[in-house]
């Protein structure tokens, strides 16, 4: 690793002040992505700002027709929480399928969203459920948050404090996972919300995206059969050693059908 200072702020304001005064400082939440990146010398921050001791960033509560989850809440906590499992079982299932037990007990939902890995699961939940990303200074709609490969709408020094998920009428998540990392080769969240059907895909492209044709079809008939005949273009999808763009295009439809089955 490179030499860097280690900061452990006691409040969000202190963390923001440290980040604002140092353009090369990085936030560390669970560290599931950042620490391996440092080990491989792919990043050289001047300081690590550890949010682990900042109060108010963990916990799950129901707020009317929505769930609010603190950004430092671990995947394992989300997966096991009785409120999540009752009100939004698709989100509990998504969290329970991330990585392995070690990753689920250290990784955080806010860290995953902020990192915006193209194969991460949480982006599909934020967009597919019509969620909102809450930061220290504003609220950002999920549709506006993810802007590209590892890119988000976060400004320098801005910290995610919580995620808000409206509770849908029904929802399901399905993914074709990498057998080693359990990242999503392709993952699809399907939800019937108060505003209509939402279908969000992760793992297939540079960033999470919605599929309007599937949303329209499921708006007519919410069943796997409604997706028959819908094909995803492979032109802008990812190709790597795990799957070609053409295979990912095929998987989007397969996983969407499975997500609808899970929701039903």
Automatic annotation (TrEMBL):
Residue stretches in coiled coil: none
PROSITE patterns: FAD_PCMH
GO molecular function, one term: FAD binding
EC number(s) per entry: 1.2.7.4
SMART domains tied to this protein: CO_deh_flav_C
Gene3D superfamilies in the cross-refs: 3.30.465.10, CO dehydrogenase flavoprotein, C-terminal domain, Uridine Diphospho-n-acetylenolpyruvylglucosamine Reductase, domain 2
Keywords in alphabetical order: FAD, Flavoprotein, Oxidoreductase
Every FAD-binding PCMH-type domain range: 1-170
Membrane-spanning residues: none
The protein's name in its UniProt record: Carbon-monoxide dehydrogenase medium subunit
Organism for this UniProt entry: Novispirillum itersonii (Aquaspirillum itersonii)
